[in-house]
Amino acid sequence: MSLPRLDFYALTHNAAKWPLPGKVLLGCALAGLVLAAADLVLLSPLRERLSQVQAQEEVLRRQLAEKTALAAGLEAKARQFQHVQKNAEQLLQQLPGESEMPGLLEDIARLALANGLVVESVTPLDERPQAFYVEQPVQVGVTGNYHDLATFVSTLGGLSRMTTVHDVALQRDGALLRLDLLARTYWLARPGATRGRPVAQAPSFVYDAGALRDPFQPLAMQVDRVPLRAGLAPDLARSRGLLEGFAVDQFEMVGTLSRGTQTFALLRAASTVYRLAVGDYLGRDHGRVTAIDERHLELVELFPDEQGAWLERPRTLVLNVNS
């Protein structure tokens, strides 16, 4: 049995005679066919293009937001750059036009002496030329007690010439401490450069913990410290005694000895006990004993200041009850 053959010509030719529902159904079918063809041929490429444009729009929106934020901070960044540039120019004006190595070496020796330190070595190293300046490193080794060494390092940073401190190493050296550091000074590298107008320096760090306990010494061997004060110049022509060849920190008070109305202090250094009375000299810094008690010994040391005057520093050696 074969299916009847559909004759589209006869179907469309007699469409005018169809009832109204048939005509409506045929019109809807034809309209749907036209819309499907239009969507396939025309709308699909446009829809894909629209999706690409929307994605590109989202990227542009993000870029616009980033650039708007950048533009908002551009003025602040410009002011910050001008501030940094001004600071850099001021620092360059502080640099001398040529090496001031002799002055730096004198400053190091003077500061070490003023703080009661012994200079073990001062070794200038090779210059290091940079883009705008020349760097001159100096290896420094000094010996003393903890607080004097700390004060020495802080005063190095307050010199009139620009000086920085690096590679600080601290180690025990007998009863004292040895400090090794690298100090660097700078000058302009431009030929014929001269020092600019003086620039006010920012406040430098000042070590003010001298009244605290020395962390490298037992409590019984602590040396009390008070600030320096103006004093009279020592007699530099006086012959130095045996005990003036040692630093005060190398001594410890181990007792007292009374003879009549006079009291002596017994101090030990390098396994040897020495007897001192009021008025005797002690230490490398013109120290002189001013009072002796059963529990402590008082003395006054003298140091030169930056203007050539002399400063007094009272110190106290406390009795070592474990001796």
Explain this structure to me?
This protein is an alpha+beta fold and 323 residues long. The chain has helices spanning 8-13, 20-94, 101-114, 146-156; strands at 118-124, 128-129, 133-144, 163-173, 176-188, 223-225, 229-231, 252-259, 262-269, 272-276, 281-282, 287-292, 296-304, 310-318. The strands form 3 sheets. Strands 6, 7, 11, 12, 13 and 14 form a 6-stranded antiparallel sheet that branches. Strand 13 (296-304) and strand 14 (310-318) form a beta hairpin. Helix 3 (101-114) packs antiparallel against helix 4. The model is unreliable at 193-200 (pLDDT under 50).
Question: What gross morphology would you assign?
Answer: elongated
Helix content: 25-40%
Can you tell me the residue ranges where pLDDT is under 50 for at least 5 consecutive residues? 193-200
Q: Specify the oligomeric state.
A: single chain
Write the layout of secondary structure elements.
Elements: H1 8-13, H2 20-94, H3 101-114, E1 118-124, E2 128-129, E3 133-144, H4 146-156, E4 163-173, E5 176-188, E6 223-225, E7 229-231, E8 252-259, E9 262-269, E10 272-276, E11 281-282, E12 287-292, E13 296-304, E14 310-318
Antiparallel strand pairs: 1-3, 2-3, 3-5, 4-5, 6-14, 7-14, 8-9, 9-10, 11-12, 12-13, 13-14
Helix pairs in contact: 3-4
Keywords:
single chain, about 325 residues, alpha+beta, 6-stranded antiparallel β-sheet, 4 helices, 14 strands, about 35% helix, about 30% strand
In short:
The protein is built from four helices and 14 strands. The protein has 323 residues and is of the alpha+beta class. The protein is elongated.
